[in-house]
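Onboarding guide, step 5: your first structure request.
Type a short instruction followed by the sequence, for example:

Predict the 3D structure of this protein.
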Amino acid sequence: MLKLEKINKSIEGRQILKDVSFEVVEGQTLCIVGPSNAGKTTLLRVIAGLGSFDSGTITLNNEPFDPEVDNRSKGVIGVVFQDFRLFPHLSTLENVSLAPELVAGTDQKQSRQEALSLLAQLDLADKADLYPYQLSGGRKQRVAIARALAMHPQILCYDEPTSALDPSLRDNVASLIQQLRNDQITQIVVTHDLAFAEKIADQTYELAAQD
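The system replies with structure tokens like these:
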């Protein structure tokens, strides 16, 4: 279980996050919603260790958790970025297998076998040798999800997973997130799409814009 208590963060004198408190139950999906200037992505970056916070506490499984330190060393939180951030010069298979090899020190043969298994689970087995420019937006997103899952995170975070997709693909994303929930993967989803949040969320946390 991930628990945040009274998280505060200011940027250039403007308070972005104020007394943010919530907990995510293992195996469930939490949606963070709110207007575009409410600090949703900032909060996600704090949770994933990609940004600092000024005050407050974070615990994971009832133990103190410093995302900037602990997540970099243990990789317990994975992130699927809004713009996917796939490496354009690497194939689908290489994008998924790279982090386990470089960060976790996994043998290349093993990492590629695991990557192929993940790609098969996400209906991408026949796309393993393709490059990002050859993939649709929906397939790029699934590659990004496979890449995050390859590090075996305890929690998987998404930043606006439907924003770069056509409306026809949003139901596919919802189905995938629900499938991962059924596999007991804890997920945190930042979204401005309330209808999408209703489909996938066990819990919803609303961030208000700060003056």
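Each response can be followed by summary notes, for example: The beta strands are 2-11, 14-24, 29-33, 55-60, 63-64, 77-80, 155-159, 186-190, 203-206.
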